[in-house]
Amino acid sequence: MAATSSYDRLKELKEFDESKIGVKGLSDSGIKTIPDFFKHPPQTLPDLKSKFSQANTNIPIIDLSNVNSPDHHQKIVNQIKEAAKSWGFFQVINHGIPISVLDETIQAIKAFHEQPYEIKSKYYNRDESNGVTYASNNDLYRSEAACWLDSLKAQMGPKPLDIELLPEICRKEVVEWDLSATKVAETVMELLGEGLGLEPGKFKELTFSQTKYVVGHIYPYCPQPDLTMGITSHTDPGVVTVLLQNQIQGLQVKHEDRWLEVKPALGGLIINVGDFLQIVSNGEYKSVEHRVVANSCKEPRISIVEFFNLSKWKGDGYYGPLPELLSAEKPAIYRNFTTQEFLENFYSKGLDSKSLIQKITIRHE
Ligand code: OGA
Ligand code: NI
Question: 231: Cβ below 6 Å to ligand 1?
Protein backbone atom coordinates (compact mmCIF):
# COMPACT_ATOMS: atom_id res chain seq x y z
CA MET A 1 0.00 0.00 0.00
CA ALA A 2 2.69 2.44 1.05
CA ALA A 3 4.83 1.46 -1.92
CA THR A 4 1.97 2.10 -4.33
CA SER A 5 1.18 5.51 -2.93
CA SER A 6 4.80 6.65 -2.91
CA TYR A 7 5.14 5.46 -6.51
CA ASP A 8 2.12 7.53 -7.45
CA ARG A 9 3.53 10.54 -5.68
CA LEU A 10 6.80 10.33 -7.56
CA LYS A 11 4.91 9.98 -10.82
CA GLU A 12 2.85 13.05 -10.04
CA LEU A 13 5.92 15.04 -9.07
CA LYS A 14 7.59 14.09 -12.33
CA GLU A 15 4.58 14.99 -14.39
CA PHE A 16 4.40 18.37 -12.72
CA ASP A 17 8.14 18.93 -13.09
CA GLU A 18 8.24 17.83 -16.72
CA SER A 19 5.27 20.02 -17.59
CA LYS A 20 7.51 23.00 -16.62
CA ILE A 21 4.47 25.08 -15.73
CA GLY A 22 5.55 25.68 -12.16
CA VAL A 23 3.25 26.71 -9.35
CA LYS A 24 2.68 29.96 -11.22
CA GLY A 25 1.21 27.98 -14.12
CA LEU A 26 -1.01 25.94 -11.79
CA SER A 27 -2.21 29.11 -10.11
CA ASP A 28 -2.92 30.85 -13.43
CA SER A 29 -4.85 27.83 -14.70
CA GLY A 30 -7.54 28.74 -12.19
CA ILE A 31 -7.51 25.47 -10.22
CA LYS A 32 -9.59 25.58 -7.06
CA THR A 33 -7.87 22.67 -5.29
CA ILE A 34 -4.15 21.97 -5.10
CA PRO A 35 -2.56 18.63 -6.11
CA ASP A 36 -2.04 16.21 -3.20
CA PHE A 37 1.75 16.39 -3.29
CA PHE A 38 1.55 20.02 -2.12
CA LYS A 39 -0.43 19.09 0.99
CA HIS A 40 1.49 19.23 4.26
CA PRO A 41 0.74 17.22 7.39
CA PRO A 42 -1.43 19.28 9.77
CA GLN A 43 1.24 19.46 12.49
CA THR A 44 3.61 21.42 10.25
CA LEU A 45 0.97 23.83 8.96
CA PRO A 46 0.63 27.29 10.43
CA ASP A 47 -2.60 28.31 12.02
CA LEU A 48 -3.47 31.03 9.54
CA LYS A 49 -6.26 32.43 11.67
CA SER A 50 -4.01 33.12 14.62
CA LYS A 51 -1.70 35.42 12.73
CA PHE A 52 -4.09 38.31 13.09
CA SER A 53 -4.21 37.95 16.83
CA GLN A 54 -0.45 37.97 17.22
CA ALA A 55 1.16 40.61 19.32
CA ASN A 56 2.36 43.57 17.36
CA THR A 57 6.03 42.65 17.56
CA ASN A 58 8.42 43.01 14.68
CA ILE A 59 12.04 42.06 14.17
CA PRO A 60 14.42 44.91 15.10
CA ILE A 61 14.82 47.71 12.57
CA ILE A 62 18.30 49.15 12.34
CA ASP A 63 19.03 52.48 10.72
CA LEU A 64 22.36 52.35 8.91
CA SER A 65 22.56 56.05 8.09
CA ASN A 66 25.73 57.56 9.53
CA VAL A 67 27.23 54.12 10.07
CA ASN A 68 30.66 55.62 9.49
CA SER A 69 30.20 58.58 11.80
CA PRO A 70 31.99 58.13 15.14
CA ASP A 71 28.91 59.42 16.94
CA HIS A 72 26.67 56.66 15.59
CA HIS A 73 28.95 53.76 14.79
CA GLN A 74 29.14 52.11 18.19
CA LYS A 75 25.42 52.39 18.74
CA ILE A 76 24.77 50.65 15.41
CA VAL A 77 27.28 47.89 16.22
CA ASN A 78 25.49 47.30 19.52
CA GLN A 79 22.09 47.20 17.84
CA ILE A 80 23.20 44.70 15.21
CA LYS A 81 24.93 42.55 17.80
CA GLU A 82 21.87 42.50 20.04
CA ALA A 83 19.57 41.70 17.10
CA ALA A 84 21.82 38.88 15.84
CA LYS A 85 22.03 37.41 19.35
CA SER A 86 18.43 37.54 20.38
CA TRP A 87 16.53 37.43 17.09
CA GLY A 88 18.91 36.20 14.39
CA PHE A 89 16.82 38.42 12.10
CA PHE A 90 16.61 42.17 11.59
CA GLN A 91 15.78 44.79 8.98
CA VAL A 92 18.11 47.50 7.84
CA ILE A 93 16.91 50.86 6.55
CA ASN A 94 18.93 53.69 5.00
CA HIS A 95 21.35 51.10 3.66
CA GLY A 96 22.29 53.27 0.69
CA ILE A 97 20.52 51.36 -2.09
CA PRO A 98 18.06 53.71 -3.82
CA ILE A 99 14.38 52.74 -3.63
CA SER A 100 14.31 52.79 -7.43
CA VAL A 101 16.84 49.93 -7.50
CA LEU A 102 14.78 47.91 -5.00
CA ASP A 103 11.65 48.44 -7.08
CA GLU A 104 13.34 47.63 -10.38
CA THR A 105 14.74 44.41 -8.96
CA ILE A 106 11.35 43.27 -7.68
CA GLN A 107 9.70 44.24 -10.96
CA ALA A 108 12.29 42.38 -13.02
CA ILE A 109 11.92 39.14 -11.03
CA LYS A 110 8.15 39.46 -11.19
CA ALA A 111 8.35 40.06 -14.94
CA PHE A 112 10.49 36.92 -15.35
CA HIS A 113 7.91 34.77 -13.55
CA GLU A 114 5.02 36.39 -15.43
CA GLN A 115 6.38 35.66 -18.90
CA PRO A 116 4.28 33.41 -21.12
CA TYR A 117 4.86 29.67 -20.81
CA GLU A 118 6.48 29.46 -24.27
CA ILE A 119 9.31 31.76 -23.19
CA LYS A 120 9.71 30.86 -19.54
CA SER A 121 9.60 27.07 -19.92
CA LYS A 122 12.81 27.21 -21.98
CA TYR A 123 14.64 28.21 -18.81
CA TYR A 124 13.14 25.47 -16.66
CA ASN A 125 16.03 23.28 -15.42
CA ARG A 126 17.51 21.99 -12.16
CA ASP A 127 21.06 21.46 -13.39
CA GLU A 128 23.24 23.60 -11.13
CA SER A 129 26.41 23.03 -13.10
CA ASN A 130 26.25 26.14 -15.28
CA GLY A 131 25.20 28.47 -12.45
CA VAL A 132 21.58 29.29 -13.28
CA THR A 133 18.49 27.20 -12.49
CA TYR A 134 14.79 27.89 -12.66
CA ALA A 135 12.32 25.40 -11.24
CA SER A 136 9.49 24.90 -8.83
CA ASN A 137 10.73 23.79 -5.39
CA ASN A 138 14.52 23.41 -5.42
CA ASP A 139 14.06 20.34 -3.22
CA LEU A 140 11.03 18.93 -5.08
CA TYR A 141 12.33 15.34 -5.04
CA ARG A 142 13.81 15.52 -1.52
CA SER A 143 11.13 17.18 0.58
CA GLU A 144 8.17 15.43 2.14
CA ALA A 145 5.66 17.86 0.72
CA ALA A 146 6.05 20.44 -2.04
CA CYS A 147 5.64 24.16 -1.43
CA TRP A 148 3.74 26.84 -3.29
CA LEU A 149 6.62 28.68 -4.97
CA ASP A 150 8.89 28.78 -8.03
CA SER A 151 12.47 30.06 -7.98
CA LEU A 152 15.09 31.43 -10.34
CA LYS A 153 18.54 30.90 -8.87
CA ALA A 154 21.92 32.21 -10.01
CA GLN A 155 25.33 31.61 -8.51
CA MET A 156 27.05 35.02 -8.55
CA GLY A 157 30.35 34.05 -6.92
CA PRO A 158 33.11 33.23 -6.20
CA LYS A 159 33.45 32.55 -9.92
CA PRO A 160 31.84 35.35 -11.95
CA LEU A 161 28.68 34.13 -13.64
CA ASP A 162 28.45 34.08 -17.42
CA ILE A 163 25.68 36.66 -17.39
CA GLU A 164 24.39 35.59 -20.80
CA LEU A 165 22.92 32.62 -18.92
CA LEU A 166 20.56 34.91 -17.01
CA PRO A 167 17.16 35.40 -18.60
CA GLU A 168 17.31 38.60 -20.58
CA ILE A 169 14.22 40.09 -18.94
CA CYS A 170 15.98 40.39 -15.56
CA ARG A 171 19.67 40.15 -16.51
CA LYS A 172 20.70 43.74 -15.89
CA GLU A 173 18.68 43.93 -12.67
CA VAL A 174 20.07 40.69 -11.19
CA VAL A 175 23.62 41.79 -11.90
CA GLU A 176 23.01 45.20 -10.37
CA TRP A 177 21.19 43.68 -7.41
CA ASP A 178 24.12 41.41 -6.65
CA LEU A 179 26.45 44.42 -6.51
CA SER A 180 24.14 46.38 -4.24
CA ALA A 181 23.23 43.50 -1.92
CA THR A 182 26.88 42.48 -1.64
CA LYS A 183 27.78 45.96 -0.40
CA VAL A 184 25.08 45.79 2.26
CA ALA A 185 26.10 42.25 3.22
CA GLU A 186 29.72 43.32 3.59
CA THR A 187 28.75 46.32 5.71
CA VAL A 188 26.58 44.15 7.93
CA MET A 189 29.26 41.47 8.21
CA GLU A 190 31.79 44.07 9.24
CA LEU A 191 29.45 45.31 11.97
CA LEU A 192 28.74 41.73 13.07
CA GLY A 193 32.48 41.02 13.24
CA GLU A 194 33.01 44.17 15.26
CA GLY A 195 30.20 43.11 17.59
CA LEU A 196 32.18 39.96 18.34
CA GLY A 197 35.31 42.02 19.03
CA LEU A 198 37.14 40.77 15.91
CA GLU A 199 39.82 42.71 14.04
CA PRO A 200 38.44 45.02 11.31
CA GLY A 201 38.11 43.26 7.98
CA LYS A 202 38.19 39.78 9.53
CA PHE A 203 35.09 38.37 7.84
CA LYS A 204 36.19 39.80 4.52
CA GLU A 205 39.64 38.27 4.92
CA LEU A 206 37.95 34.93 5.68
CA THR A 207 36.05 35.27 2.34
CA PHE A 208 32.67 35.12 4.10
CA SER A 209 30.83 37.03 1.37
CA GLN A 210 32.38 35.39 -1.68
CA THR A 211 30.20 32.38 -2.43
CA LYS A 212 26.82 33.81 -3.23
CA TYR A 213 23.51 32.93 -4.79
CA VAL A 214 20.72 35.27 -5.84
CA VAL A 215 17.33 33.56 -5.73
CA GLY A 216 14.22 35.24 -7.13
CA HIS A 217 11.17 33.53 -5.61
CA ILE A 218 7.56 33.92 -6.61
CA TYR A 219 4.78 32.85 -4.24
CA PRO A 220 1.74 32.92 -6.52
CA TYR A 221 -1.84 33.07 -5.28
CA CYS A 222 -2.74 29.77 -3.65
CA PRO A 223 -6.38 28.62 -3.70
CA GLN A 224 -5.94 26.49 -0.53
CA PRO A 225 -3.37 28.35 1.56
CA ASP A 226 -4.31 26.47 4.72
CA LEU A 227 -3.16 23.14 3.24
CA THR A 228 0.34 24.01 2.02
CA MET A 229 3.29 26.33 2.69
CA GLY A 230 5.26 28.95 0.79
CA ILE A 231 8.48 27.54 2.30
CA THR A 232 8.62 25.08 5.19
CA SER A 233 10.42 25.94 8.40
CA HIS A 234 14.21 25.95 7.96
CA THR A 235 17.40 27.79 8.82
CA ASP A 236 19.74 29.14 6.14
CA PRO A 237 23.01 27.23 6.00
CA GLY A 238 25.50 30.00 5.14
CA VAL A 239 26.92 33.12 6.79
CA VAL A 240 24.23 35.75 6.19
CA THR A 241 21.19 36.18 3.96
CA VAL A 242 19.88 39.46 2.54
CA LEU A 243 16.22 39.51 1.56
CA LEU A 244 14.25 42.02 -0.48
CA GLN A 245 10.52 41.55 -0.89
CA ASN A 246 7.44 43.29 -2.23
CA GLN A 247 4.73 44.40 0.15
CA ILE A 248 2.87 41.07 0.32
CA GLN A 249 3.51 39.55 3.75
CA GLY A 250 4.13 35.90 4.45
CA LEU A 251 7.57 35.51 6.03
CA GLN A 252 7.45 34.31 9.63
CA VAL A 253 10.31 34.06 12.12
CA LYS A 254 10.47 31.90 15.22
CA HIS A 255 11.14 33.94 18.31
CA GLU A 256 10.83 32.60 21.85
CA ASP A 257 8.91 29.60 20.52
CA ARG A 258 6.35 31.68 18.69
CA TRP A 259 5.98 32.38 15.01
CA LEU A 260 5.96 36.10 14.26
CA GLU A 261 5.05 37.77 11.00
CA VAL A 262 7.75 39.94 9.50
CA LYS A 263 6.32 43.28 8.45
CA PRO A 264 8.64 44.53 5.73
CA ALA A 265 9.71 48.13 6.30
CA LEU A 266 9.29 50.34 3.24
CA GLY A 267 12.68 50.53 1.53
CA GLY A 268 14.16 48.10 4.05
CA LEU A 269 16.11 44.86 3.65
CA ILE A 270 15.72 41.83 5.86
CA ILE A 271 18.94 40.22 7.07
CA ASN A 272 19.39 36.92 8.87
CA VAL A 273 22.17 34.91 10.42
CA GLY A 274 22.88 31.47 8.89
CA ASP A 275 24.06 28.22 10.52
CA PHE A 276 27.69 28.80 9.50
CA LEU A 277 27.79 32.15 11.33
CA GLN A 278 26.14 30.65 14.41
CA ILE A 279 28.91 28.06 14.52
CA VAL A 280 31.91 30.32 13.83
CA SER A 281 30.58 32.86 16.37
CA ASN A 282 30.50 29.97 18.87
CA GLY A 283 26.77 30.35 19.34
CA GLU A 284 26.88 34.10 19.99
CA TYR A 285 24.75 34.83 16.92
CA LYS A 286 21.66 32.73 16.23
CA SER A 287 20.53 31.07 13.04
CA VAL A 288 16.80 31.15 13.50
CA GLU A 289 14.02 29.09 11.94
CA HIS A 290 11.81 30.86 9.48
CA ARG A 291 9.10 29.91 6.99
CA VAL A 292 6.72 31.48 4.51
CA VAL A 293 2.98 30.86 4.58
CA ALA A 294 1.26 30.12 1.27
CA ASN A 295 0.10 33.30 -0.40
CA SER A 296 -3.63 33.92 -0.15
CA CYS A 297 -3.52 37.27 -1.99
CA LYS A 298 -4.27 37.51 -5.69
CA GLU A 299 -1.12 39.57 -6.10
CA PRO A 300 1.99 37.33 -6.09
CA ARG A 301 4.50 37.66 -3.29
CA ILE A 302 8.00 38.28 -4.70
CA SER A 303 11.21 37.92 -2.74
CA ILE A 304 14.82 38.20 -3.84
CA VAL A 305 17.11 36.42 -1.46
CA GLU A 306 20.90 36.53 -1.61
CA PHE A 307 22.78 33.88 0.33
CA PHE A 308 26.38 34.66 1.29
CA ASN A 309 28.92 32.09 2.33
CA LEU A 310 32.66 31.58 2.46
CA SER A 311 34.74 30.55 -0.55
CA LYS A 312 37.94 29.56 1.23
CA TRP A 313 37.92 26.76 3.78
CA LYS A 314 40.81 26.21 6.17
CA GLY A 315 43.58 23.69 5.52
CA ASP A 316 42.11 20.55 4.04
CA GLY A 317 38.61 21.95 4.24
CA TYR A 318 37.26 22.29 7.73
CA TYR A 319 35.85 25.02 9.95
CA GLY A 320 34.70 25.67 13.50
CA PRO A 321 34.29 28.39 16.11
CA LEU A 322 36.86 31.14 15.52
CA PRO A 323 39.85 30.67 17.88
CA GLU A 324 39.84 34.42 18.70
CA LEU A 325 36.47 33.98 20.38
CA LEU A 326 37.45 31.08 22.62
CA SER A 327 38.84 31.23 26.13
CA ALA A 328 38.78 29.23 29.35
CA GLU A 329 35.52 30.97 30.24
CA LYS A 330 34.14 30.55 26.75
CA PRO A 331 35.17 27.12 25.45
CA ALA A 332 34.05 25.93 22.01
CA ILE A 333 30.48 24.68 22.06
CA TYR A 334 30.85 23.17 18.58
CA ARG A 335 33.50 20.87 17.17
CA ASN A 336 35.13 21.54 13.82
CA PHE A 337 33.24 20.26 10.79
CA THR A 338 34.39 19.47 7.26
CA THR A 339 33.28 20.95 3.95
CA GLN A 340 31.87 17.52 3.22
CA GLU A 341 29.72 17.57 6.37
CA PHE A 342 28.52 21.06 5.51
CA LEU A 343 27.53 20.05 1.98
CA GLU A 344 25.91 16.81 3.12
CA ASN A 345 23.81 18.80 5.52
CA PHE A 346 22.87 21.13 2.71
CA TYR A 347 21.83 18.48 0.24
CA SER A 348 20.67 15.51 2.32
CA LYS A 349 17.59 17.12 3.78
CA GLY A 350 14.78 18.99 2.26
CA LEU A 351 14.76 22.38 3.89
CA ASP A 352 14.10 21.16 7.40
CA SER A 353 15.99 20.88 10.67
CA LYS A 354 19.25 22.28 12.01
CA SER A 355 20.94 18.92 11.62
CA LEU A 356 24.53 20.15 11.16
CA ILE A 357 24.40 22.31 14.27
CA GLN A 358 22.89 19.46 16.28
CA LYS A 359 25.48 17.04 15.01
CA ILE A 360 28.49 19.15 15.98
CA THR A 361 27.29 20.57 19.31
CA ILE A 362 29.63 19.43 22.08
CA ARG A 363 28.12 21.35 24.95
CA HIS A 364 25.07 23.42 25.59
CA GLU A 365 25.34 26.96 26.84
C1 OGA B 1 14.86 31.22 1.70
C2 OGA B 1 13.84 31.96 2.46
C3 OGA B 1 12.09 33.58 2.49
C4 OGA B 1 11.28 34.41 1.56
O5 OGA B 1 14.82 31.29 0.45
O6 OGA B 1 15.71 30.57 2.34
O7 OGA B 1 13.79 31.80 3.65
O8 OGA B 1 10.60 35.30 2.07
N9 OGA B 1 13.02 32.77 1.80
O10 OGA B 1 11.31 34.19 0.37
NI1 NI C 1 15.61 30.94 4.37
Answer: yes
Closest by CA to 225, choosing from 45, 50, 350, 13, is: 45
Q: Give the chain's domains with CATH numbers.
A: 19-316 (2.60.120.330)
Taking the centre of ligand 2 as the mean of its atom positions, its distance from the CA of residue 287, in whole angstroms, is 10
Identify the nearest ligand to the CA of 216 by its number. 1
Report the separation in Å between the CA atom of 234 and the middle of ligand 2, taken as the mean of its atom positions.
6
354 CA to middle of ligand 1, Å?
16
> What residues contact 252, with CB distance under 8 A and at least 6 apart?
46, 51, 259, 260, 261, 262, 290, 291, 292, 293
Distances (CA, A) of 355 to 30, 231, 237, 277, 336: 38, 18, 10, 15, 15
Using the atom order of ligand 1, give the atom closest to the CA of residue 236: 6
Full pLDDT tens readout for the chain, 365 residues: 445 566 689 999 999 999 999 999 999 999 999 999 999 999 888 876 665 445 567 899 999 999 999 999 999 999 999 999 999 999 999 999 999 999 999 999 999 999 999 999 999 999 999 899 999 999 999 999 999 999 999 999 999 999 999 999 999 999 999 999 999 999 999 999 999 999 999 999 999 999 999 999 999 999 999 999 999 999 999 999 999 999 999 999 999 999 999 999 999 999 999 999 999 999 999 999 999 999 999 999 999 999 999 999 999 899 999 999 999 999 999 999 999 999 887 766 555 456 899 999 997 65
Of 133, 232, 241, the residue with max ligand 1 atoms within 8 A of its CB, to mutate for a pocket test, comes to 241
DSSP single-letter state for residue 8: H
pTM reported for the whole predicted model = 0.95
**Which residue CA neighbors atom 5 of ligand 1 most closely?**
305
**Do the Cβ atoms of 136 and 23 come closer than 8 Å?**
yes
291 lines ligand 1 (CB under 6 A): no
